[in-house]
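pipeline stage [seq->struct] | target=LRC66 protein | organism=Circaetus pectoralis | residues=222
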Amino acid sequence: SDCQWDGEFLLNCSFTGISTIPEDISQTAITADFSHNNIKTLLCTDGRNEKWILKHLNLSNNLISELSLTTCRNLLVLETLNLNGNAIHTLTLDIPMPAHGSKKYGKVDRLLPALKVLSVERNNLDTVPRGLGLLQSLQTVHMSSNGIQQIDLNDFQNCSQLKDINLQNNKITKIHPDAFRDLNKLQVVVDLRENALTTPLPQILLSLNFFHLEVDLSNNAW
């Protein structure tokens, strides 16, 4: 392929026209850039004998429409995932719970335990991705320019490390008043510009009562 490998840590396959991720990615790669290609999905190969040490994965500006990371148990140290500029309408970030009565029932597996930055801007999401609330290391989540319609109570429930949430330019009409209540480390911006909110949100603002926090609600429907 036309991918460029620095022989040590960086794999650059951007603008190469590939439609699938090469199977022979070096186990030593820390950064992999597959942006601006024709990739339609990400298939994690759990059969590898060793775990990847990949920390930064860029899949922006591809043709991905549906993405499930339920098989990606070999991305244990991944810190940043860039999915901007695709056509993603379904993004699954958790492992389905075992059937009730099985030996594993009650145990929740967590994918991407080291993920700090998730960017899914300019896609077709209509809800917050399932399982996002299980990403306990997540610090930054950018989901602007999608079709998200509401924020539910549990969408960010366990994301105790979150510092920055960008939900600008969606179709949000409803936000649960306690959706952000326990996110005590928020310190940048809760960006809700250019949505479809029609009523003020005093309960949400009270629950975000931090002196260092900015909440941007401009250009809504009220």
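stage status: PASS
auto-comment: The longest strand covers residues 10-12. The mean pLDDT is 83.
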